[in-house]
Amino acid sequence: MRYKLYYWPSIQGRGEFIRLALEEAGADYEDVARESGPGKGVQALLALMEGAARPPFAPPFLRAGEVLLGQSANILLFLGHRLGLAPQDEPGRLWAHQLQLTIADFVAEAHNVHHPVSAELYYEEQRDEAQRAAERFLAHRLPRFMGYFERVLQAAGGTYALGWQLSYVDLSLFQLVTGLRYAFPNTMARLESAWPALIALHDRIAMRPNIAAYLRSPRRIPFNQEGIFRHYPELDR
User: Fold this and answer.
1) CA-CA distance, 175 to 232, in Å (whole number)?
2) Cα dist from 165 to 54, 156, 168, 198, whole Å
3) Residue-wise pLDDT tens for the chain (237 aa)?
4) 12 touches 221 (CB < 8 A)
5) pLDDT at 36
6) Model pLDDT, residue 134
7) Pick among 3.40.30.10, 1.20.1050.10, 1.10.287.690, 3.10.20.740: CATH of 90-208
8) CATH number for the domain whose boundaries are 2-82
9) Measured in whole angstroms, how far is the alpha carbon of residue 99 from the centre of its chain?
10) Phi first, then psi: what are they for 30, rounded to 5°?
11) Structural domain spans, the chain
12) Which of helix, strand or coil describes residue 18?
């Protein structure tokens, strides 16, 4: 199977959770909007959003043969057992999906720190509101979510979120830690010691051969001020 991933070409964003799974599995895929030629580029992405019989609301979405799927957690639910990154039993698959949905909630809250009023406004148009949102997020929401994932890892034995086997959830937790370190380096340096299993998981994922190769490659888009995780020093106290 050759997978086609559709996401914005200049940011990691929510598409990165899909890329990490595809890269870890060594899957054959193309990042369509980052390529040029007929049926490629952003125009191909927009055409599917407008013209598909069951159109996705927004990127990321994935085509696998005749199947077209949107929503990161939904895509990972689909890919998980096909790539060997999810349990084969239904309770295990649903637990992985539940964790991924919780990650999606956290990602939305992290984004809303710098866009608390509206995604349609520039950060500079809501800077004061972002300052207040950052204070609450860093004091309450970030520790609450990270503490939850730490407890999940501890309960599972401390190696992987689902136990002793790597899953797409672990790759997504790696991306969470990496993104939060970029966006809020001071806060993360101050709080990380409270989450030893989560930080150890991040370090193990970074050393996996396929992930390490991906992180060194041009396929890994650098963090920037257009994605979910953005570094504004005034928000990181």
Assistant:
1) 19
2) 34, 10, 10, 15
3) 899 999 999 999 999 999 999 999 999 999 999 998 888 999 999 999 998 899 999 999 999 999 999 999 999 999 998 999 999 999 999 999 999 999 999 999 999 999 999 999 999 999 999 999 999 999 999 999 999 999 999 999 979 999 989 999 999 999 999 999 999 999 999 999 999 999 999 999 999 999 999 999 999 999 999 999 999 999 998
4) yes
5) 87
6) 97
7) 1.20.1050.10
8) 3.40.30.10
9) 12
10) -125, 140
11) 2-82, 90-208
12) helix
> In this structure, what token pair is assigned to residue 97?
């999906």
Backbone dihedral angles phi then psi of residue 54, each to the nearest 5 degrees: -125, 75
Spell out where the chain has E strands.
2-6, 28-31, 61-64, 67-70
How does pLDDT run across 79-102, given as a tens digit for each residue? 998 999 999 999 999 999 999 999
Res 146: pLDDT? 98
Taking CA atoms, 10 is separated from 21, 98, 122, 136, in Å, by: 19, 29, 18, 29
**DSSP states along 106-161:** HHHHHHHHH-SS-TTS-GGGGHHHHHHHHHHIIIIIHHHHHHHHHHHHHHTTSSBT
